[in-house]
Amino acid sequence: MTLNLTAEHKMLLALATKAQKNAHAPYSNFHVGAAILDENAQHHACCNVENAAYPLGQCAEAGAISAMIAAGSKQIKQILIVSPNNNFCPPCGGCRQKIAEFANAETEVHMATKSGDIKTVKFTELLPLAFGFDKKD
């Protein structure tokens, strides 16, 4: 857990928490927010959006990636996922592969709890053998 939050951690946490408040999660009541720092030092955030026709919803990480791509960026430097409770919320398997498309070995994944504790891992710890991860940086 990270006790001394950097300015970047605080920014990503604030953006993810703000997005989390807009989550549409009437089926699971599990509101998640995610925020990305890209290669251009821009920030992108989103929340999860559930759909009655499961699994047509969208995870917060996928939405943040879409926002990043729509803004013209191509690389995730850091991503923070904020949980609605005091358990860390790692990306699901599908989102790990989506993150891999725009990550490199140095990409940091921060997982934040509702109380603000943060755990940070390198992306390769979450998905060490991702499809297509052998791309050049």
TrEMBL record:
Asked whether the UniProt record includes Iron among its keywords, one would answer no
Q: Which residues form a coiled coil?
A: none
InterPro entries (alphabetical)? APOBEC/CMP_deaminase_Zn-bd (IPR016192), CMP_dCMP_dom (IPR002125), Cyt/Deoxycyt_deaminase (IPR050202), Cyt_deam_tetra (IPR006262), Cytidine_deaminase-like (IPR016193)
What residues does Zn(2+) bind to?
A: C59, C92, C95
| Pfam families recorded | dCMP_cyt_deam_1
Q: Can you name one GO molecular function term for this protein?
A: cytidine deaminase activity
Q: Which cofactor does it need?
A: Zn(2+)
Q: Which residues cross the membrane?
A: none
Query: Top-level EC class, please?
Result: hydrolase
Question: What region holds the CMP/dCMP-type deaminase domain?
Answer: 7-134
Any Gene Ontology biological process: nucleobase-containing small molecule metabolic process
Q: Which CDD domains match?
A: cytidine_deaminase
> What residues make up the catalytic site?
E61
Q: Which residues bind substrate?
A: N48, V49, E50, N51, A52, A53, Y54
What are its E.C. numbers? 3.5.4.5
Indicate the family of this protein.
Answer: Belongs to the cytidine and deoxycytidylate deaminase family.
Name of the protein in its database record = Cytidine deaminase
Organism expressing this protein natively: Paraglaciecola arctica BSs20135
Gene that this polypeptide is encoded by: cdd
